[in-house]
User: Fold this.
Amino acid sequence: MNKIIGKENLSEKVVRFEVEAPLIAKSRKAGHFVILRVGKKGERVPYTIAAADPKKGTITLVIQRVGKSSEKVCQLEVGDYITDMVGPLGKATHIEKFGTVVCAGGGVGVAPMLPIIEAMKSAGNRVISVLAARTKELIILEDQVRQHSDEVIIMTDDGSYGEKGLITNGVEKVIQREKVDLCVTIGPAIMMKFVSLLTKKYEVPTVASLNTIMVDGTGMCGACRVTVGGKTRFVCIDGPEFDAHLVDFDEMLMRLKAYN
Assistant:
């Protein structure tokens, strides 16, 4: 069992937890995720590790209230325990000095983007972070992102904060003014699709994290299968990150509708 030692509401439906998990904290890398379960009959749910502190032996999870299982997790308080947690799982993000890297995070996707931003900056890249949400209240982890970014662009659908427009507007503005060597995008599938279409037009290599489609997290249930470059891949064991220009996002969006 893993004890919760910190809890913070980032917005109405997004909660940040700090959880005791010394072994996971010690071996975790950017891009890794965990699977947790609350209650003996609880659903096994994957969540990306947003941060880790090996000295304290803790990891940070950012969870959005979406359904019954996530609501169950978000109701836990400091001092409560997560019944089961296993990780780190998945393949770590490939980090090297690319040059200028644009990190495009939408909504709660900013949480799994944060360790990638930090790692890319530590590798010597110029990091430009583009954060997007429907409204100001849904922008999360801005201060933490700014700590590891050379520039932060904020886009909101309603113009209540930053610039009015979609995340693609912010990304395109950067591409048009300077050479971008890599784009990393994490967020809703429809957002990643259009970021990918944009960067493909400008021939900017792009990586997308498809963690939104995962269920089991071990490759056994098959629910997270996606087509990448014409071949079937499993997000939980082959990813969660793939060449965005090779992902069949239309097929992925159809599969996501099954969970509605």
